[in-house]
Amino acid sequence: MEHGGFLLGAGVLLGVLALGGLVFSRLRQSVIPAFILLGMAARPYALDEHMVEVLATLGVVLLLFLMGVEFSLAALLRNRRSILRNGAIDLAVCFPAGFLAALAMGWGWAGGLLLAGAFYVSSSAIIAKSVIEMRRSANPETETALGVLVFEDLFVALLLAVLSGAVLVAEPSALAVAGGVGKALLFFGAVVGAALWGRRALDRAFDLESDDLFLLLAASLVLLLSWAALAAGLSEAIGAFLAGLALAETEHRERVERLFAPLQGLFAAVFFLGFGLSIDPATFAAVWPQALSLTLVGVALKVAGGWWIGRREGLPPRSALTLGLTLVPRGEFSIVLAGIAAAAGYHELAALVAMLVLALSLVGTAGIRFAPELGRWMFPRRESRPLAERGFNPALAGFDPPKEGNRE
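Now predict its structure.
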């Protein structure tokens, strides 16, 4: 493509993304479905596929990097019991349904793990952004929801590491799975250990007065760890996620978020667009009944699991219901898993996940929005005062919700 054509195509592409995102934002919906739908609509037209692929790769790397930055390992360790307990309930309720559905459709163990992960993991991006925009950070269910999201993201990060290794290369076996898990845990342990023990060295290395030099050094760390993950037979997204975890333990965390957030928004939009380009809408005809069934089951299981968790934590009925509705949206990690499915030849599975993400992100956003009204209708009795009056701090859950505009 000539330079003029490249500039024209890129300009039109970004303009259409902005317009689509604006429309969905005005409708108070997540912008993720808008970007995916635009990608599917643009599929028949001539686009520079190499350009989109490169930008989408950078998008997923920055997306996972900033997700890692938003974690606090120290807070995670302090609250590990409640996070593990609630996360295990959520996992037990939701993960098996996706796995069994994939087995019933003949996709085998590897397809089962892919669909189970995509079906199980909620969208931290959509949920955190919705909580902030609707001013619910101090609501009783928010701390519990963030703890569940921490568990989900860490579990699926490990699952992603396993699936991108030996499991999808050949017919999965117990030895291949064990090798993938061992490799992933070794890589995780090495990076997290280096981050914790080398925190002072990282603080000194990134103590740069110039924002430009700081940005270059941080970007270098992200790309090098992404390369290291690929070299280890894992996904580049895992390296980016761990780079974020490492920098989250330094005194430069807020600076990282401030400098990278605008770039993440741009490249993440292209990442979701690139995912839409990889999906042939014609494949929807073969999977829409399964997608509809899994959408209904996905809503029901998240609400049931959230209710169970909320009541175990002592939350009142309204808050327990809101917790379940808050966990309904699926998004970024599901799309990453769908990308692995497409690359491994599971094209119908990728299309099924695309439909699930589209449906559950829209239904989930609406559910979060109308949760208080639904709760008051179902449970009209007055409930306890919000956690804001009791000194609640969302960061204690081990996950800091992003500032407005930092995600999606």
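Confidence is low (pLDDT under 50) at residues 385-397, 402-408.
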